[in-house]
Write a structure and sequence with these properties.
The chain contains twelve helices and eight strands. With 325 residues, it is α/β, with parallel strands linked by helices. An eight-stranded mixed β-sheet has the order 1-2-6-5-4-3-7-8, with helices on both faces. The longest helix is centred in the first third of the chain and has 23 residues. It is elongated. The N and C termini lie close together (5 Å).
């Protein structure tokens, strides 16, 4: 069985300490990461953490390690891989776009190679109109058919439509969860198409954490950063969808905000985002389908992310924790 990486054990244990969050963990890593294998090694060699953690926090950290070790061992048994922020295998797009606000770890089940594949993300209404579902499905089918991975959440409406379409077209899809990986279940709406070789399920939260609005908003940032382009369908004036659109524009990920005949009045967010820098989706006169040439162009551009050989997804190559030997 693969040995648990010290850095992952430390991150889990520190996140269980009251008053310690990602910012504190990043600062501790900067102090210890270059010279020591882990925070534990840092302390074991006599370095004092009193300047950085309170005495009760240090005690909580030490006490949390046994519980964290049990959790990580169970995740390993469940064939879940964990990629930590400080690993060379962590997706570079997340670091490049979100910096230290990127998730400290990703828990992954399924085809982990999809994290490194050229991808386009979708976000939109849970109660999208038939035209909205058709527009999202058209885009997802074209993209999946050309080898572009589809990123989205796991809600009904646009999320589920794009996952189903990608798999039905023989393509791949990544589900980014707003909850812990242990909360994941394959939904009835998609189980007939499910294929673990073509699906990647990702969570950035502690394994048993339940769904929350805050988690969903945070998760949207991860979908954006993993995607070369975002496509937003029927966003309202407020809520997670328009927030995701604004975040895409803020971090420089190109955003498509389609406006079409029959667009519900509630989907005012798409029109607002067009005024703020989003691109309009046009229909091809020759095919009658969404015109996505420039999306393919952007998706195929080389950036600084790792180039993974999709034919070799061995954990020895990736340097990841979680797979059983």
């Amino acid at each position: 069985m693969t040995e648990i990486k010290p850095a992952i054990l430390d991150i889990f244990s520190l996140l269980g300490v009251k008053g310690v969050g990602p910012a504190k963990i990043h600062s501790l890593w900067k102090i210890s990461g270059e010279s020591y294998k882990s925070f534990s090694d840092f302390m074991a060699k006599g370095a004092s953490l009193e300047k950085h953690l309170k005495s009760n926090q240090i005690l909580e950290f030490e006490e949390a390690r046994d519980k964290s070790l049990q959790q990580l061992s169970q995740l390993m048994e469940d064939d879940i891989t964990i990629v930590d922020y400080f690993s060379n295998s962590y997706p570079s797009r997340l670091k490049n776009i979100l910096g230290e606000k990127a998730p400290l770890f990703l828990m992954v089940k399924g085809n982990i190679c999809l994290l490194y594949k050229k991808s386009v993300g979708f976000c939109g209404s849970r109660k999208a109109s038939e035209k909205g579902i058709a527009t999202a499905s058209d885009c997802a089918e074209q993209l999946a058919g050309q080898g572009v991975n589809i990123n989205s959440g796991y809600a009904s409406g646009i999320d589920m439509a794009t996952h189903r379409t990608a798999l039905n077209a023989g393509g791949t899809t990544t589900i980014v969860l707003p909850e812990g990986i242990n909360q994941f279940r394959i939904k009835k709406q998609i189980e007939d198409l499910w294929d673990w070789d073509r699906v990647c399920v990702v969570s950035e939260f502690l394994p048993n954490l339940p769904w929350s609005v805050r988690n969903a908003m945070q998760r949207n940032n991860t979908i954006i950063a993993l995607s070369k382009v975002m496509i937003l369908i029927e966003a309202g004036a407020t809520g997670g969808s328009i927030a995701a659109g604004k975040k895409s524009l803020e971090v420089g990920v190109p955003l498509l905000a389609p406006v079409y005949e029959g667009l519900p009045e509630s989907a005012i967010g798409n029109r607002q985002l067009l005024e703020q820098g989003a691109f309009r989706l046009h229909k091809s006169k020759s095919t009658g389908r969404a015109h996505l040439d420039w999306v393919f162009d952007v998706a195929n551009r080389t950036d600084e992310t790792q180039k993974l050989d999709e034919k070799d997804d061995s954990e020895e190559q990736l340097g990841l924790f979680g797979k059983k030997k």
